[in-house]
Every structure is written in C-alpha cells, then in structure tokens.
Amino acid sequence: MSWQAYTDNLVATGKIDKAALYSRAGDSLWAQSGSFQLEPTEIAAIAKGFDVPDDLQVHGLHIQGKKYFLVRADERSIQGKFKDDQTDVGIIAVRTKQTILIAHYPTGIPGSAATVVVEKLADYLISVQY
Description:
By secondary structure, the chain is an alpha+beta fold. It is 33% helix and 33% strand.
C-alpha cells in the first residue's frame, strides 16, 4: 500500500477531514490529503514535542498558522483543540517507529472518536515495523 492510501483511509472514515504522514524526524512529508501540509517549524515542534513537550505546553500547538490549545503531549501522541464562535476542531498527532501521523478532525466530531481512528492506524503501522 502506498503512503497516500493511509491518509486517504483516515479521511474516508468520516472522523478526519485532513491528514498528513511525515517521517518520524518530521523532515520529510510522505503523504497528505488535499493541501494539508505543515510549515517546517510546525512539524519540527511536533516532532520535538513527543520527547520534550515544554515548548508546546508554553506556546501551544501550531498547525497551518492556527494556534491550538494543547490538550495532551507525551511520547506517543499530541492533541490540540481550536475553538472560536464558528468552529470546534482538533488535531491528533501520533508517532510510530518511523512516522508521525497528523490528523485534523472537523466540528461535530468528538475528539475521542477521531483519536480512536488515528491510534488504530498507528498501532497497525507499529505492528508492521513502521
């Protein structure tokens, strides 16, 4: 299966509206849905945040120029929420042995439902040594 199929499958669940797959170091984009691509500083902060979440805790999680409130940051996953008068969306980033999955869920989707979808794909990638 191509890397693109993984991002396509995340979006096809209906729980995720945008997804990207990066190398574990965050220095290479392997697949994306539509134009969902992070700035180099954004993915670098996420890649670092799995091991040292201090900067994310202080400055928040930035995705495509928007600042997300950090909900969780540990060695496995990073989660953020963005809420204003019109939107209530979130980000889930999960690190595997060789990749970082980044997924965006839209208004109306519970963060827990979106997290299950992304974590399940991450578990699969880990099981096949990715």
